[in-house]
Each structure stands twice: as structure tokens, then as C-alpha cells.
Design goal:
With about 140 residues, the chain is an alpha+beta fold. The chain has five helices and seven strands. Strands 1, 2, 3, 4, 5, 6 and 7 form a seven-stranded mixed sheet that branches.
Length: about 140
């Protein structure tokens, strides 16, 4: 009898999450989350969500993502392990186009992600929502 499969590493889970975003599979992306996972946006401007608590809140926030941003690639991905084996720091760019205007999308991201038992439990997303607002879309809007 084969031993039970060990949960995926945080790096593996994160790489899978990026593939799902590129595939516009938001349901699959949300399925990577723990039920009580928390997503935070430390640089969120006033009136925008700073913290989403629970998988359902994350799902509601992310569901319209492909309607606003058509991601094509995450070049320059660098994943750094930390002293906590469940936590990684990821640096990357997200490139594509803004659906509403057709204009190019090119955003630099840093994320601090914690994974337990193969599920994302914490995701701190350090991106600049002001750059997206200036480019003509309101994806980060509070109306969601």
C-alpha cells in the first residue's frame, strides 16, 4: 500500500494558483483556500477592502476578476522560502490587458502567502491598486 500523499508545498500551491488565474478558473483558485483563509491588501486605498475573511469572502471578491483583467502571464516569478516552512514570499509581474479599455496591464506584485495542509490560509497582497485605478478600471472597487 502506498503511503498517503503529503500536502503540496506552499510553492507548489502558489504556482498552481497562478496557473488557475491565467486559465480564468476562479472556482479552482478559490478551492485552493482554507475555509477560514484570510486575504489582506495592506496598501488598499480608503474605501477599498483591506481584509477578506473566509473562503466565501475571497470568492466573492475574485469572481469578477476575469471581467476586468485578462492576464496573459506572470513573468519574473521569484519565490522565496522563509523560516516558517508554510510561508513563502513571491515576487512577480502580472501582464495582460484591461478588458474594459483594451489597454495593457503590467503590475508588479509581492505576496506573503501561508499554506497549511495544502490550502492557503493567509495571503497578503502588496500591489498598487492606485495604478489600476489610474489606468481606467475599478477592479479594486468597494462596490463588490
Amino acid at each position: 500500500m502506498a503511503p498517503p500523499a503529503s500536502p503540496a508545498s506552499p510553492s507548489d500551491v502558489y504556482r498552481r494558483s497562478l496557473r488557475l488565474l491565467l486559465d480564468k478558473d476562479i472556482s479552482g483558485w478559490v478551492a485552493l483556500w482554507a475555509e477560514d483563509g484570510v486575504m489582506e491588501f495592506p496598501f488598499a486605498p480608503e474605501g477599498r477592502p483591506r481584509r477578506l475573511e473566509g473562503r466565501e469572502a475571497v470568492a466573492a471578491y475574485m469572481r469578477p476578476y476575469p471581467d476586468h483583467i485578462d492576464l496573459h502571464d506572470f513573468p519574473d516569478l521569484r519565490i522565496h522560502e522563509t523560516t516558517d516552512p508554510g510561508t513563502i514570499v513571491a515576487e512577480m509581474r502580472g501582464v495582460g490587458r484591461l478588458v474594459e479599455t483594451g489597454r495593457p496591464y503590467d503590475m508588479t506584485y509581492i505576496a506573503v502567502v501561508t499554506v497549511r495542509d495544502g490550502r492557503i490560509t493567509s495571503y497578503r497582497d502588496y500591489w498598487n491598486p492606485l495604478a489600476v485605478l489610474a489606468s481606467g478600471t475599478d477592479f479594486a472597487g468597494s462596490g463588490r
